[in-house]
């Protein structure tokens, strides 16, 4: 992999970088069946591919309506997030991607880091239930768009199909 993609890369450069990251993830996870190994590898590959990614990782559903931190890269994250709280909770509750260009405008956003300005959270679904969410936080405002949404959703879909069963 080259250096991390600069913050203000255009949509084409971003798509190309995601294509490379997805190829790299596919190669690294070839033959793997361990859920934590998969999440850790995806968090690492994504985090180091984009300058805009300041916190990249997973929260796992560990009991009813409760998220517990999983593999991540960046400074420490909140250990537990109920479904009722924050952007992560909203993604888990609604089973839909939350794209937040300005975290201060999102009621109930949890500021694990005071430097976070924008965020995207994608749910991972197995048999109709959320088993985890992928959370990416940026210190830049408006860092995420539909290019990120589509690529991150496709990575989560792959994880769900290949590892969803192992998530329980
Ligand atoms: N900002 C998130 C919390 C998780 S961390 O920042 C790592 C939220 O509002 O759900």
Average pLDDT over all residues: 95
Strand content: 25-35%
What is the strand tally? 6
Going by helix content, strand content and strand pairing, the class is alpha+beta
The rounded distance between the terminal residues' Cα atoms is 32 Å
Q: Measured on Cα atoms, how large is the radius of gyration?
A: 15 Å
Describe the protein:
The protein is α+β, with helices and mostly antiparallel strands. Helix content is 35%, strand content 25%. It contains 4 helices and 6 strands; from the N terminus they run ααβββαβββα. The chain has helices at 11-28, 35-47, 86-94, 146-163; strands spanning 55-63, 66-73, 80-82, 98-100, 118-126, 129-138. It has a 6-stranded antiparallel sheet, with helices on both faces. α1 (11-28) runs antiparallel to α2 and α1 runs parallel beside α4. The chain is globular and about 40 Å long. The model has no long low-confidence stretch (mean pLDDT 95).
Task: Give me some keywords for this one.
about 170 residues; globular; binds methionine sulfoxide; 6-stranded antiparallel β-sheet; about 25% strand; 6 strands; alpha+beta
